[in-house]
Design brief:
- The complex is a heterodimer of chains A (312) and B (281).
- Chain A is mainly α and 312 residues long.
- In chain A, α4 runs parallel beside α8.
- Chain B has 281 residues and is mainly α.
- Chain B has two domains: 58 residues, no CATH class; 214 residues, Orthogonal Bundle (MetI-like fold).
- In chain B, α8 packs antiparallel against α9 and α12 packs antiparallel against α13.
- The C terminus of chain B is likely disordered.
- Classes of the chains: A mainly alpha (312), B mainly alpha (281).
- At the A-B interface, α1, α2, α4, α5 and α6 of A face α1, α4, α5, α6 and α7 of B.
Chain lengths: 312, 281
């Protein structure tokens, strides 16, 4: 019996030692900090960092779907510069991401100013105007898809009823009109985001500041110019940078409304990368298209980071 | 006289613009709802006013449940959304706590890294990600989405929770630890109960993003009935045949409904969460 017991007795202190060590690891800030980062970090490494580097490799290869390719250097990137559809895609992406921002910001500011008034039903109204931003874009875009339909469009019906047009408008069939409609839907979706973000900025302005300014003889415009605008400048800038980044990298809105058509005139980087990389199975070229977004996104991300750091 | 002038001014400055906003922002939803409640032949009848319902019907909704995989899409969306949200919340609580409260080597660097990860869009990664999913054998399984969605959720949720944890006075924790509580026990018993509003904001954010996600779902889980609601609606109900408008719109309405309800209840949390994340970063 004593022979069997002794190993257990001997292992006891060392097991206690391991436990104590583990406990110590969980109590020391340095080790616990790292341990707590691990689960999230693993997911981000496997499904974000690794695909990012794999994407760089793919863009430098002639890979097709299901076949790992050979290294071809920068050929995909150089070929794309000579591709007229890619150049059109680049122009579209900038139009889509930059032209829409001032509209979203100004209309969002207007919405925020309206919502900042004390009124009845302010909570239900706030929830209602948030809808374009929060419901699944793929589904709300289907509503627009029908509103722009060449046969069933209610806009065409109304204009015909008023005698303003004779033929239905083909909103998504004409290249110039199609890109304007994509911008319109993007603005529609973005207004609530700007509105609610700027509203938060407005509510942080102490009422006394307005009152003090009013007592000093400032009229409504002056108060807006010198009290309101400085208070929301920062938050509006952050919202604009985020909006540019998201719109730049958009996909679903365009995929559903035009799929890049008619005749590839309304692609942005995301939809063109999808078409070349998956539909046409040239995954190497598709990865190169997607990577063309990277430097631009990086610039806006850095601006945002620098601004936030300065604020702190 | 003064009173009526005031009312007129308020109408002009507030109610008029606000009405214009509400009409513009809600019209597509109004349109989706009324089309979903009309019988198909009415859509073709040009003498009917398309902005109103002439004959009310639920046949489009019935069609959705009887003749399409809609109920499967609902099930898939719920499974993916709940799982990915739970995983993301657990990871984000741990990361948020570590970054808010613990000093460890590289914590500043990791904080910036997490923030930058928030700005990495799915369109940048979906092609190589498709290969990763294929290599892991996850194509057309729930795991393809459950494991990839957290990469879009963890960065923002961690950031938000970190901000929230920092607002809790350190003294509460210190006194708990002085009483012999371990750090992890303090996190679970003291910090989390005090952070319910923050957890709610982060949870709503994650839930919405999972429910709404389109690109990864379109590519990684899109065969047969294995689809989420947005992907199923777009790829199964859009046919060359125009007869599907009613079913298309009813699917869009039902798919948007849970999110709309969630926000009607939690609009304040959402706003505070959004600003906590967007403003103070």
């Amino acid at each position: 019996m004593s022979v069997e017991l002794s190993p257990t007795a001997e292992s006891l202190p060392s097991r206690r030692g391991i436990l104590a060590k583990a406990k110590n690891l969980l109590e020391r800030q340095a080790s616990l900090g790292i341990i707590l980062m691990i689960p999230g970090a693993i997911l981000l490494m496997v499904f974000m960092a690794y695909p990012f580097f794999l994407g760089i490799w793919l863009s430098l290869s002639d890979s097709m779907i299901g076949r790992m390719g050979r290294f071809v250097g920068l050929r995909n990137f150089i070929d794309l510069i000579g591709d007229s559809i890619f150049l059109q895609t680049t122009r579209n992406t900038f139009t889509y991401a930059l032209i829409t921002v001032p509209f979203k910001a100004v209309l969002g500011l207007g919405l925020a100013l309206a919502l900042n008034n004390r009124m009845r039903f302010s909570n239900p109204i706030r929830a209602a105007v948030m809808m374009p931003w929060i419901v699944p874009t793929a589904l709300s875009t289907l509503g627009w898809f029908m509103i722009f339909d060449p046969v069933f469009s209610p806009i065409s019906w109304l204009l015909k009823d008023l005698g303003l047009i004779k033929q239905n408008i083909n909103f998504l069939g004409d290249p110039g009109l199609a890109i304007s409609m994509l911008c319109l839907v993007n603005i529609w979706r973005g207004i609530p985001f700007f509105g609610i973000t700027i509203l938060a900025g407005l509510q942080a302005v102490p009422q006394e500041l307005h009152e003090a300014a009013a007592i000093d003889g400032a009229n409504a415009w002056h108060r807006f110019r010198h009290v309101t605008i400085p208070a929301i400048k920062g938050i509006a800038l952050i919202a604009s940078l985020l909006s540019i980044i998201w719109t730049f990298a958009d996909f679903q809105l365009i995929y559903i409304l035009t799929k890049g058509g008619p005749a590839n005139t309304t692609h942005i980087f995301g939809t063109y990368a999808f078409q070349i990389g998956l539909a046409a199975t040239e995954i190497g070229v598709g990865a190169a298209i997607a990577l063309y977004m990277f430097p631009i996104l990086a610039v806006f991300a850095m601006l945002l980071l620098m601004y936030l750091r300065r604020e702190d | 006289m003064v009173g009526s002038g005031k009312i007129r001014k308020r109408t002009l400055n507030l109610y008029l613009p606000l009405t214009a906003y509400v009409i513009f922002l809600l019209f597509p939803f109004y349109w989706m709802i009324i089309v979903s409640l009309k019988p198909t032949p009415d859509l073709f009848e040009l003498k009917y006013n398309p902005f109103w319902i002439q004959h009310f019907t639920l046949e489009n909704y019935l069609y959705l449940f009887q003749n399409t995989d809609f109920s499967e899409w609902v099930k898939n969306t719920i499974i993916v959304t709940v799982s990915a949200t739970s995983i993301s919340l657990v990871c984000s609580v741990l990361i948020g706590y570590a970054l808010a409260r613990l000093k460890f080597p590289g914590s500043n660097f990791l904080g910036v890294g997490i923030f930058l990860a928030y700005l990495v869009p799915p369109t940048l990664l979906f092609l190589p990600m498709a290969q990763v999913i294929a290599k892991l054998g996850l194509y057309n399984t729930y795991w393809a989405l459950i494991l990839t969605y957290p990469t879009q959720l963890i960065p923002f949720a961690s950031w938000l929770l970190m901000g929230y944890f920092r607002t809790i006075p350190k003294e509460i924790e210190e006194s708990a630890m002085a009483d012999g509580c371990t750090r992890l026990a303090t996190l679970v018993r003291i910090i989390l109960p005090l952070s319910v509003p923050g957890l709610l904001s982060a949870g709503i954010f994650c839930f919405t993003l999972c429910w709404n996600e389109f690109l990864y779902a379109l590519i990684f889980m899109s065969s047969g009935p294995m689809k989420t609601i947005p992907v199923g609606t777009v790829s199964d109900l859009i046919k060359a045949d125009t007869l599907f408008w009613g079913a298309l719109m009813s699917s869009a309405v039902l798919g948007s409904f849970p999110i709309a309800i969630l926000y009607s209840f939690f609009v304040k949390h959402y706003v505070s969460g959004l600003t906590a994340g967007a403003v103070k970063g």
